[in-house]
Structure of Sulfate transporter:
Amino acid sequence: MKENIEFIKKHFVTDISAGLVVFLIALPLCLGISLASGAPLFSGIIAGIIGGIVVGFSSNSSINVSGPAASVALIIFTAIQTLGSFEAVLVAVIFAGLLQIALGYLKAGTVAYFFPNAMIKGILASIGLILILKQIPHAFGVAGAFERVESFQNYDGTNTFTELLKIFKEISYGATIITIASLIIIIGWDRPALKRFTFFKFFPSALAAVVISIFLNEFFKFYLPDFALDSSQLVNLPVADSIGEFANFFQFPDFSVIGNVDVYTIALSIAFIASLESLLSTEAGDKLDPYKRRTSTNRELKAQGIGNIVAGFVGGLPITAVIVRTSANVHAGAKTKTATITHGVIMLLCVAAIPMLLNLIPLAALSAVLFVVGYKLTSVGIYKQIFKQGKKQFLPFIITILVVMFTDLITGIMVGGTIAVFFILRDNYKNAYINDEKVIKESENKRVLRLAQETTFLNKADIMLFLDHLPEDSHLVIDGSDAKFIHHDIYEIIDEFKESAKFKNIKLEIVNLDRTLYTKFWKKQ
């Protein structure tokens, strides 16, 4: 079902309401992810605005909501350290967007689904762990502490855990109380007993925690000044006195770093993670869509690329489609992209009109929001679920997490992906054929080699070893009855074996093995 004017009009009021709900959820997340990225807080708001308006118009998804995501926070944090400034990182964001558009035109929208699921979950779980570690200083009110949490080993010989221990010497009791109160609110707010009431369904838990944290800090100012937070422990968005001054708050890319190879490495990382999350979120969103509309994954890549190019030019964080906001959008009753665009427009109006109100938000409350986001990415249930799936899934998953934690994200992706592919290749290697044991028992000299449905060049070694170890004076039947595709290399191996079989006095019988299985397969592609 495609959206048309009548359909949009019919659901306009409901979509405006849904957009307001998504805004209430997205605002604290945009600020929190900016905090986790080490980027200016305003950059997360910009990304939320662009994700709503620009990507909302460009995508053909009716319910997807895009904005800054926790999955790219670690990349940006590392990138700022590597390139030296956020303005330099914006160049990488632009190139990432260009790469996404190119991938869309190359019809690479389905490629992401071929990445091993265990590796993907390992990446997300490791990001969740790092998000939690990175927010501990803010949760306890230690401003500016622990700035290299993305790397386990620090330059001064210390590491993540030794640095965390130092934080407890500088605890702010006011921030700690706000963090604990915020966590209690977020966790308790989503209990089924409260969700029976309309207010608790409509008003998001994260925003409730933020609002109550503001009142708590104001209470401290009047009655417990020793507990009150100072400006370094609060959100600090620029406040404009005019539209012209507001325009000056946007940051622009520093193209002087265009010759730095690290820019392109970071761009590849952003494009990979942002595209992967966007495609997976789109697939999940389509399943939630009450009308079961299918989103073009290639167009979605182009839309995300356009969004990231715009974000890079005006100082925004990288953008992805985000399943948390998308699911909230659907549950709030959204039927068309009007809801997505509305949430971006409301965010723009708020940051332009009421930044002083947003500057009352304690960073400790945003840390509590990110603790919950991080835990959802790396919950105990996920570890149990993957463990039950066996070592082929659990080893790539846990190795990816450990490598990311103790080195960096890119190394973790490479190592985890290698381990996952190893298991895939090994399974493929083992499943080239079925050696019919019943026939072997009936006759010591007879073997039946039943080729698998998909017999590729990856199976060459296994088949060659089987043929090489056949005893002299035996009888071999090669049966292709079950095969739907046999690679050309396999035919060559069989042709060569025809000659060697004569010297070993092996009787060779070939059944239902048609060489056109190879040529027909490729003609269909």
Summary: The chain has a mean pLDDT of 82. The chain has two domains: 5-420, 433-524.
